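Person: Please comment on this record:
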Amino acid sequence: MAVLHPADALPLPVAAGGAARSPVVNCVAYAANGRRMYDTTLDQISDVLAEPEAFIWLGLHEPDDPMLLKIQEEFGLHELAIEDAQHAHQRPKIEVYDDTLFIVVHTSQFVEGKVRFGETHIFLGKRFLITIRHGASLSYARARASCEQTPEMLALGPSFGLYSVLDFIVDNYFPIVSSFETELRELETRIFNERFDRDTIERLYQLKRETVTLRLAVTPMHDILNQLKRFFPGLIHEEVRVYFRDVFDHAVRMSEATSTLGEMISAALQVNLAMVSVGQNEVTKRLAGWAAILAIPTTVGAIYGMNFEHMPELKWEYGYFYVIGLTLSLCLGLYWRLKKADWL
């Protein structure tokens, strides 16, 4: 049944100092009343599930193939879902395998001042909740701690833990969007500078791409949350459905915010291009104006360079002074007219 084989396994991630880092972040057993009983190991999962109405919340971070094979055996997960969890490049979705839900959502996180995106794969059963994080993603320790502070809600089962995780993921989108909006305001200020800035164009494009990626992560959450608040009666407790509705509202707000932000960025790009075109037109006008002014002495000089014999100024003592003065007067007059027309 298993599709993973230990022989094909990847090595464990290595932490600082060369020590192998365990992909198990947390593995906790909870009693029927929602209170934390004890931390457990993967080998003790069967013993915990043998206790009446107890359930397990397992958190993993970038597990290797043997680890996925182990949890597949312990929880009886479907091989196709495990195969998807093995490859961390899935689209956001929700699928049903027998009596287990498999959910894929995209996450976001600030890493060294830049936005990075990752994935979280979630398995929800009647007696277990498994979260598998890949790539950029904050730990769900805060979501777990929040649930443990309200054991009467956690007593409703793993579905309340699922709500807490999804709520944490959606809420983490908001500071990302806020940072995008702040940066866009700064870029808008730079757009209206008189000097063309190539870096502004590049950053606007990058911001547009990041916003689109974020919207692709948020929008599929609508369908996932809509199904969770309506279907799966054996897995989602009725009292938890209203909480999924609240997360759904947050996801809709976030989707609208990303759409609005994307439109503003597109408008900023168009305004920037318009400002560049206006600047180029101003330069063209000035060049044309100076070319017209310089055309006057050029024409006069060209005429005198033809070596005509009969020209009234050739034998006149003040002829050259007259021609130079007339040329200068014409140039100054044209300059004044162009300056008045705002061409110079």
Notes: The longest strand covers residues 100-111.
